[in-house]
């Protein structure tokens, strides 16, 4: 779906990606292309790209797909704040950063999200789906959980 541009510096875009670890690369590329010409600060853009990658990877690792074996990847840009979110088919586990040790090779995804994001959280949908979101470059209009 092409991005909706409300004003010169506002974007609202959704893409559906396969429920597959390789989809993180597609999500990063789509996000970067969408926001590249929108005067987003380089640091905020780079952080948003990293965060969307972590959220897609976490959805594939810890949750099920939505109908059609897909994930919904969405982002908005308003007044310099980039909000990204990934919706999956839901999970029995709760998204939370885990305690890590220097020897672990996995488990740093939500710590990375938390480090870059101004705010982050998740919303459980009535249909069992879950959306994990993060705001970069400033506060979100959402409430954190």
Question: Low-confidence parts, pLDDT < 50 over ≥5 residues?
Answer: none
Q: Main sheet?
A: 6 strands, antiparallel
- Label the CATH architecture: 2-Layer Sandwich
> What percentage of residues falls in helices of 4 or more residues?
25-40%
Distance, first to last CA: 29 Å
User: Tell me, what is the CATH class?
Assistant: Alpha Beta
As for the CATH topology, it is: Heat Shock Protein 90
For this structure, what is the CATH homologous superfamily? Histidine kinase-like ATPase, C-terminal domain
Query: Which sequence of SSEs, written as H and E, runs from N to C?
Result: EEHHEEHEE
Question: How large is the radius of gyration?
Answer: 14 Å
The beta-strand count equals 6
Overall shape: globular
Total of helices? 3
- Count of discrete structural domains: 1
Structure class: alpha+beta
């Amino acid at each position: 779906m092409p991005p909706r541009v409300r004003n010169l510096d506002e974007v609202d875009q959704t893409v559906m990606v396969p429920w597959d670890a390789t989809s993180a690369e597609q999500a990063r590329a789509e996000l970067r292309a969408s926001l590249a010409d929108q005067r987003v600060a380089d640091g905020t853009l780079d952080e948003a790209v990293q965060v969307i990658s972590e959220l897609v990877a976490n959805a594939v690792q810890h949750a099920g797909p939505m109908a059609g074996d897909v994930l919904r990847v969405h982002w908005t840009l308003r007044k310099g704040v980039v909000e990204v979110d990934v919706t999956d088919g839901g999970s029995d586990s709760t998204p939370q950063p885990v305690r890590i040790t220097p020897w672990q090779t996995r488990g740093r995804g939500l710590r990375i999200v938390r480090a870059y994001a101004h705010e982050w959280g998740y919303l459980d949908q009535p249909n069992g789906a879950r959306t994990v979101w993060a705001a970069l470059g400033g506060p979100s209009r959402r409430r954190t959980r």
